[in-house]
Amino acid sequence: MFSYSIVGAQLYVGDMLFVMISFLVLMWLIKIIAWKPITKMMQNRSDKIANDIDSAKESRTKAAQLAEQRQTELQKTREDANGIINAAKQSGQQQGEKIVEDARNEASNLKSSAEKDIEQQRQEALANSRKDVASLSIEIASKIISKELNADDQKGLVDSYIEGLGKHK
Amino acid sequence: MNGGTPSTFEFLGLTFNVGNMISILIACAVVLGLVYALSRHLTMKPGKGQNVLEYAVDFTNGIVNSSIPGSTSKFLGLWGFSLFMFIIIANLQGLFLHIDVSGVAYVKSPTSDPVVTMTLSLMTMTLAQFLGIRKLGYKGHFANYLKPFVFFLPINLFEEFTNFLTLGLRLFGNILSGEMLLGIIVGMSHGGPVIWIGAFVLELLWTGFSVFIGCIQAYVFVTLSSVYISRKIELED
C-alpha cells in the first residue's frame, strides 16, 4: 500500500514509523538509565568544585589572617621578653650596687668601730700605764730620794710630765 | 546490500522491512547496553566507564551548545546524545556484523537504508519546526520564511526541503557505499589464495576507513541538525 520508490529503494512507511518509535523509546530509556543520573552527577560535581574553590579562598584568607596575627603576637612576645630581660638586668645591677654599697658601708662601719675600739684601748692602756708609771715612779722616787715628798705632789709632777709626753706625740 | 528483494510484511496497511527492523533493534540494544554498562556506580570521582560516558556527554553537549546556546539545550543535549550514540553504533554495526540470507540482508547498518536516514532527518526537521514555533510563536516562525524579503519564500521553502534531503542522503550514501565496497571486496576474495590475501589487506584498510567515515558522519549529522534547529529558533534579520 504505502510503498513508493525513492532513490532506488522502496519507501516503507512502516519502517519510518518503526524508526521513529524505536528512536523515541531509545531516547526515553537513555534518559532514565543514564542521562538523568550522569547530568545530575556532573552538576553536583561542578557545584562541589565551585564550593571547594570558594571555601579554599576563604580558608586561604583566614590562614593569612592567622599568620599575620601570629606574627604580631610573636613580635609582642619578643618585646615583652626583651622588657623582662632588661628589667631583670637593671634590678640585678641595682641589687649588686646595693650589695656593694651595703658591704662598703658595713666595712666602713666596722673600720670606724675598730678604730674607736683601738683608740679606747689605747686610751685605757695609756691611762693604765700612766697610773702604773705614776705609782712606779713614786715608789722609785720614794725609794731613791726617801725625802719628804708626799704622794700627791709627786703624782701631780708625774702627770704634768706625762701630759707633756702626750703633747709631744 | 540491497541485492535481493527485501523480505517485507504488511501490518495495518503499512509495509515493514524485517531486515531494517532487526538491525534497528540490534543497534538500539547495543546503545542501551553500552549506556547501561557505562552508567553503573556513578560517583563524584569518576571511574573508567563513567569517564567514557561523561566524555561522550560532554562531546555531544559541546556540539549542541556550540550552535544552540541557551535554555533549550537541556532537552537538546539528551536529543543530541541519543542521536549521536544511535547513529555511530548504527554506522559501525554493519562493519562488524552483516548477515545476508539468500541475498537479503537481515543484519546490517540500519543507516545504510535511505528510509532510516530520511526518517532521522525528517525527525530533525520536525523538531526544528516545532522548537521554532514554540520559541517564536506561529507568526514569528513563519515570518522567517519571508526574510530577507517576500520573494525569498520559494527559496526558503526549497532550502528546507534540500536540507531535509541532504541531511538524510549524506549519511545514507556514506554508509551504503562503505558496505557496498566491503561486499565487493568480499566477493573478490573467492578468486584464489593470492587474491584472498590481497582482498584481506584491502578489506582491512577499507573497514578502518569505514569506521572513520562512520564516526565522522555521526558527528556531521548531529552538528548539522543542531545548526538547522538553531536557525529555526532565532529571528533572522
TrEMBL record, chain A:
Superkingdom of origin: Bacteria
Region of interest (Disordered), ranges: 87-132
Biased segments, Basic and acidic residues type: 113-122
Subcellular location: Cell membrane; Endomembrane system
UniProt main location, coarse: membrane
InterPro entries to which the protein is assigned, alphabetical: ATP_synth_B-like_membr_sf, ATP_synth_b/b'su_bac/chlpt, ATP_synth_F0_bsu_bac, ATP_synthase_B_chain
Family: Belongs to the ATPase B chain family.
SUBUNIT field: F-type ATPases have 2 components, F(1) - the catalytic core - and F(0) - the membrane proton channel. F(1) has five subunits: alpha(3), beta(3), gamma(1), delta(1), epsilon(1). F(0) has three main subunits: a(1), b(2) and c(10-14). The alpha and beta chains form an alternating ring which encloses part of the gamma chain. F(1) is attached to F(0) by a central stalk formed by the gamma and epsilon chains, while a peripheral stalk is formed by the delta and b chains.
Purpose of the protein: F(1)F(0) ATP synthase produces ATP from ADP in the presence of a proton or sodium gradient. F-type ATPases consist of two structural domains, F(1) containing the extramembraneous catalytic core and F(0) containing the membrane proton channel, linked together by a central stalk and a peripheral stalk. During catalysis, ATP synthesis in the catalytic domain of F(1) is coupled via a rotary mechanism of the central stalk subunits to proton translocation.
Name of this protein: ATP synthase subunit b
Species of provenance: Lentilactobacillus fungorum
From TrEMBL, chain B:
Principal subcellular localisation of the protein: membrane
Entry's family note: Belongs to the ATPase A chain family.
Keyword flag Transmembrane: yes
InterPro entries cross-referenced by the UniProt entry: ATP_syn_F0_a_bact/chloroplast, ATP_synth_F0_asu, ATP_synth_F0_asu_AS, F0_ATP_A_sf
Coiled coil: none
Gene: atpB
Any one Pfam family match given in the protein's UniProt record, by short name: ATP-synt_A
Cell compartment(s), UniProt: Cell membrane; Membrane
Keywords: ATP synthesis, Cell membrane, CF(0), Hydrogen ion transport, Ion transport, Membrane, Transmembrane, Transmembrane helix, Transport
Keyword ATP-binding annotated: no
Membrane topology annotation: Multi-pass membrane protein
Record-linked NCBIfam families: ATP_synt_6_or_A, PRK05815.1-4
Function, as annotated: Key component of the proton channel; it plays a direct role in the translocation of protons across the membrane.
Protein name: ATP synthase subunit a
Highest taxon of the lineage: Bacteria
